[in-house]
């Protein structure tokens, strides 16, 4: 499948990249390319220009400093989960990064690209030919949404594996623009709007992921169910972090809404409770209330709802053993 | 707009005129005539197009050719030395790790990346890292056996 035509730039600095992006609002950043190029082959994304970040060498690192673990946005997933500190102390992140696609996607795909990946939908992630049987959907440039059966809305689903793990580790991200950079909670970059899932300003790129080292004190895990264990996006994915010393739990899900979801009501419910078979019995019901499942994948809503409850329960049971 | 780039493939430098929207896979096959690397899905989901980029397993269908400038690319054509098959290839031939052979170049290149990274892998590890290389014929058992045997043949070394 041929890629559509585009102009190509390979800037040498973040500032240069941001300047090009500001100048060309329709340009798209390419990191590992494993998400973007597939969408371009399908003609659901057709940027006039590609700004390849492959020339930026200083965004590839995992470092610890001043109580923070800092990971460059262009660090490839394989390097993230092979890092000894991540592997040992941040198991949710290691498990999530090593569950993305196959070994090849983990070798090519970057952490920043994983977080910023497009939302997905069974009517969107298809070839132009497949899609030509229906009018163009809203996200692909038309009016109707074939999922909601309404115009001008989009319920495509965020399916990234790593975001929920980073959410429960209380990660922040550094966004760089021409005016400089700022650090914001990871959660704040997800808009919850299907058509434009990220809250990045024009000319902004994600340059660093920052995880407080305190998140290493505690139990954490990421669990995923996919059609094939080997290569597929999650049908549902769940990350859990718990602290024995403070009695806190943090829980986040992916593939259940237009953005990755922190289930705060459930967290409040569990606060201070001793985790045991009894207390985790009711989590299924609670967890489902905080997500907005739509028929944007081939899996039914009731199936996803069941999986979600089971995954969170099984992660919490592991936490009981791990504490 | 076409541009001239230099690609280092199997130790040779090739000057080629390409458009930015050409993938490394297209350039290898259509411009350089290196048709050993196969085009399966062309969407990053089958592994048939796997090549080595600076020693690691990359999907050449999801890589822009311009982004491969300055990298050492190795394809299946670059694996054997003279007329001698590489030990990985020998293992696949002897143990029947292939049938129609379409997936084989991608599988062998992925095996090379795996064994370079981990000279004595466990079977579990090979299965996990090979999972993105689909094969419609063999049922994978002999593929895994071939990789394990190659690891032994190479003496657990690169
Ligand atoms: C067969 C297959 C299976 C896959 N399975 C999974 C899976 O199981 N789980 C999963 O999570 N993903 C999966 N993926 C998607 C993809 O491989 C990964 O999400 C990967 O981590 C994306 O990273 P990348 O660097 O290749 O992103 P790219 O494709 O380079 O970028 C993705 C998007 O993010 C934007 N972007 C990239 N970097 C930045 C940045 N620094 N700042 C701002 N915007 C940026 C790009 O413009 C683009 O829109 C799969 C892909 C394929 C083809
Ligand atoms: S949810 Fe609707 S608008 Fe969004 S991608 Fe799917 S069909 Fe298109
Ligand atoms: S052809 Fe590249 S992964 Fe299938
Ligand atoms: S040998 Fe035929 S596809 Fe693998």
From TrEMBL, chain A:
One of its GO terms (molecular function) is FAD binding. SUPFAM superfamilies: CO dehydrogenase flavoprotein C-terminal domain-like, FAD-binding/transporter-associated domain-like. Residues 1-216 form the FAD-binding PCMH-type domain. It comes from the Bacteria. InterPro entries: CO_DH_flav_C, CO_DH_flav_C_dom_sf, Diverse_Substr_Oxidored, FAD-bd_PCMH, FAD-bd_PCMH-like_sf, FAD-bd_PCMH_sub1, FAD-bd_PCMH_sub2, Mopterin_DH_FAD-bd. Keywords: FAD, Flavoprotein. Transmembrane segments: none annotated. It holds the Pfam family CO_deh_flav_C. The keyword Transmembrane helix does not apply. SMART domains: CO_deh_flav_C (SM01092). This is FAD binding domain-containing protein.
From TrEMBL, chain B:
Residues 3-79 form the 2Fe-2S ferredoxin-type domain. Transmembrane segments: none annotated. Coiled coil: none annotated. It comes from Desulfomonile tiedjei. One of its GO terms (molecular function) is oxidoreductase activity. Keywords: 2Fe-2S, Iron, Iron-sulfur, Metal-binding, Oxidoreductase. This is (2Fe-2S)-binding protein. The keyword Metal-binding applies. CDD domains: fer2.
